[in-house]
Design a protein that fits this description.
Blueprint (H helix, E strand, L loop, with lengths): L1 H24 L2 E3 L2 E8 L2 E8 L3 E5 L4 E6 L50 E5 L4 E6 L5 E6 L4 E7 L5 E2 L1 E5 L10 E5 L2 E4 L9 E3 L3 E6 L4 E7 L7 E7 L10 E7 L1 E2 L3 E2 L1 E2 L4 E8 L5 H18 L16
Antiparallel strand pairs: 1-2, 2-3, 3-4, 4-5, 6-7, 7-8, 8-9, 9-22, 10-21, 11-18, 12-13, 12-15, 14-17, 15-16, 16-22, 17-18, 19-20
Length: 314
């Protein structure tokens, strides 16, 4: 009688062990979104896998360090060394999303930026990451769907300005001459402005692509404003656009002189990869429709947990 009991106990223990491993391996899974633990550049990450992209979120930094497309191309390509050296860090530590909190005399500077240790991040549901700065003065969430990620600034001191940046490698590489971009003002465009000729306009959304990529990265701001936004390219050496490496610098709420423009909480943004290259004005018009759909969908209150991840059409 003891042998069957022991065998059954072993089977139960094995199932329990495997179940525990599964829970540790997959921290949470909502429809179309799976979040697990991972590592990048020796730093703890949340790895968010969706149908359209894989995101690596630096937990202590409070921002994205990697954004991989279906072909494995990294649209951010963060590296921690050098972390903050001008201009060399354009090939390394300057990269990230949203890189929100900045300033020499700001004790929270680096919050929202991979590579820094100003934040604590935790899961707040099957498809949500919530970040709080160690000072307690800042808090934001990222909510993921099958097609995009929605950022909400939940808490921010009114006396400290901030911005929302995309600084990284379009289609996984530094190649300003083959990159293109567009906004709600028109596109595709191919101006390759640099740090000495930074472009400032006002945009609701923008996309970025490369001649060799079959997709674009779309970033949109949900709340309209009249604040300046910027786009330019930063090389990792004094050669500028001819440097061997570098990144695009795009910023909602980033004004001349590198001055952040947003104040307080409430701002929301949505970003994600959209399949299909934007080769002409007709495809740009289709992309504009996608941007409008994303903005409409993201502005709706989240659904109850049982259906929180209904797929959003790109």
């Amino acid at each position: 009688m003891s042998v069957p009991t022991s065998s059954a106990s072993c089977r139960f223990s094995r199932r329990l062990f495997l179940g525990t491993l599964a829970l540790l391996s997959a921290l949470t899974c909502a429809r179309g979104v799976t979040i697990t633990e991972a590592e990048h550049e020796g730093r703890a990450q949340f790895k968010v896998v969706t149908v359209s992209a894989t995101y690596f979120f630096d937990r202590a930094g409070g921002g994205f360090s990697r954004l991989l497309d279906r072909d494995g191309k990294d649209w951010i390509s963060f590296r921690k060394e050098p972390l903050k050296e001008v201009p060399a860090s354009a090939a390394a530590g300057f990269r990230g999303i949203p890189n929100s909190v900045f300033g020499k005399d700001n004790p929270d500077a680096g919050a929202g930026h991979p590579g820094f240790d100003q934040c604590k991040s935790a899961l707040a549901g099957g498809d949500i990451i919530r970040t709080v700065s160690k000072s307690g003065r800042w808090a934001w969430t990222w909510r993921f769907t099958e097609t995009n990620a929605v950022f909400t600034m939940e808490k921010a001191p009114a006396e400290v300005a901030w911005w929302f940046l995309y600084e990284g490698t379009i289609a996984g590489r530094w190649s300003p001459r083959t990159h293109y971009w567009g906004t709600d003002s028109g596109g595709p465009r191919r101006e390759t402005t640099d740090s000495k000729r930074q472009l400032f306009e006002q945009w609701r959304w923008a996309y970025f692509g490369d001649d060799q990529s079959p997709r674009v990265l779309l970033v949109a701001q949900m709340e309209k404003d009249e604040l300046p936004d910027t786009l330019w390219f930063m090389g990792s050496t004094r050669a500028g656009l001819e440097a061997p490496d570098g990144m695009v610098v795009f910023g909602f709420g980033r004004g001349p002189g590198g001055k952040p423009q947003f104040r307080g909480a409430g701002q929301r943004f949505v970003l994600g990869l959209v399949e299909g290259a934007v080769k002409d004005a007709s495809v740009h018009a289709q992309l504009a429709q996608a941007a409008d759909r994303w903005l409409q969908q993201a502005s709706k209150p989240p659904s109850p947990p049982a259906s929180a991840n209904s797929p959003a059409k790109p």
